Amino acid sequence: MRAESDAQPFTHRCRVYYEDTDAGGIVYYVNYLKFMERARTERLRNLGFAQSQLASEDLLFVVHSSEARYHAPARLDDELLVTAEVVKIKRASLHFRQQVRRAKDNLLLCEGQFLVACVRTESLKPRPIPEALRSAFAGSGLPPAGD
């Protein structure tokens, strides 16, 4: 199932801070994963679903698996554009495709794929993605959770 329309994927803007860099002055590789995590969280928020609200409804999203490819370095003060596109929705998981680009020249810095599982907060056992959330990702026009 193709989840989102062919419109531009959701993009989150962020900046590289000193704490994000290594001794060589470039973004430490693991921080790209943090930037992409934030973009996924903001994607949910943009659809009307706060992670804190979902947790109170016995729902967490946890990364099951990740893959990243690094193409070019980001440096201190670079503004980054981080996409979060859902490419597949299954019963209890979302498959995201993500990119990190430098804003000033749109250069691809890093790209990744993430399988994110939907689980219960206490047991961490898989649970179905709620229909309202599934519909929001699929663009069916249903109102976001809480409306």
Helical content, roughly? 10-25%
Largest sheet, spatial ordering of strands: 1-3-4-5-2
Radius of gyration: 16 Å
The beta-strand count equals 5
> Helix/strand-derived class?
alpha+beta
Major sheet summary line: 5 strands, antiparallel
Discrete helix count: 3
Shape: elongated
Low-confidence stretches: 1-5, 140-147
What separation lies between the terminal Cα atoms? 26 Å
List the helices and strands in order: EHHEEEEH
What's the mean pLDDT score? 90
Question: Beta-strand level of the residues, as a percent range?
Answer: 25-35%
Written overview of the protein:
By secondary structure, this protein is an alpha+beta fold. It contains three helices and five strands. It has a five-stranded antiparallel sheet. A hairpin with a 2-residue loop joins strand 3 and strand 4. The protein is elongated, with a radius of gyration of 16 Å.
Summarize the structure.
With 147 residues, the chain is an alpha+beta fold. It contains 3 helices and 5 strands, in the order βααββββα.
Note the main attributes of this structure.
147 residues; 3 helices; 22% helix; 35% strand
List the helices and strands and how they pair.
Blueprint: E1 10-15, H1 29-46, H2 51-56, E2 60-70, E3 79-90, E4 93-102, E5 108-119, H3 131-138
Antiparallel strand pairs: 1-3, 2-5, 3-4, 4-5
